[in-house]
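4.2 Preliminary Data

To establish feasibility before requesting continued support, the project team ran the inverse folding procedure on a target of 124 residues. The structure was first converted into the token representation described in Section 3, and no sequence information of any kind was made available to the design step. The complete token record follows.
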């Protein structure tokens, strides 16, 4: 009986893997950026509009939503003055997006830029 149970469990695990891989992943995401380090992010939504709306709901104040599709997004802020310089980026890989967001913050006058938030969507 235990051999039957282990074969049944293995078959169920294989079915979950096969059918789980066959279902399409939601690939829309967004990063919302506001003043003084405010942010919101959303990922794995069906479409960009839904992701942007969800990200903006999380962000306090007047925020700009930046869509990402099968990518990563990051926000860097100047910790010396969180209401001052900031930078954000969207790129296919997390290492690239972290570097770009930090460089962008420094380009806008930041002195101690650090990553405030990041998110990756689907294959990002």
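Position-by-position output of the design step:
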């Amino acid at each position: 009986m235990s051999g039957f149970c282990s074969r049944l469990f293995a078959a169920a695990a294989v079915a979950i893997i096969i059918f789980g891989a066959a279902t399409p992943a939601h690939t829309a995401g967004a990063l919302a950026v506001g003043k003084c380090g405010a942010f919101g992010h959303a990922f794995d939504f069906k479409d960009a509009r839904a992701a942007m709306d969800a990200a903006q709901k999380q962000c306090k104040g007047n925020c700009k939503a930046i869509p990402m599709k099968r990518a990563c997004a990051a926000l860097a802020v100047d910790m010396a003055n969180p209401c001052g310089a900031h930078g954000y980026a969207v790129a296919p890989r997390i290492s690239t997006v972290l570097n770009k967001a930090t460089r962008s913050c420094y380009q806008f006058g930041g002195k101690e830029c650090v990553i405030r938030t990041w998110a990756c969507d689907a294959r990002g």
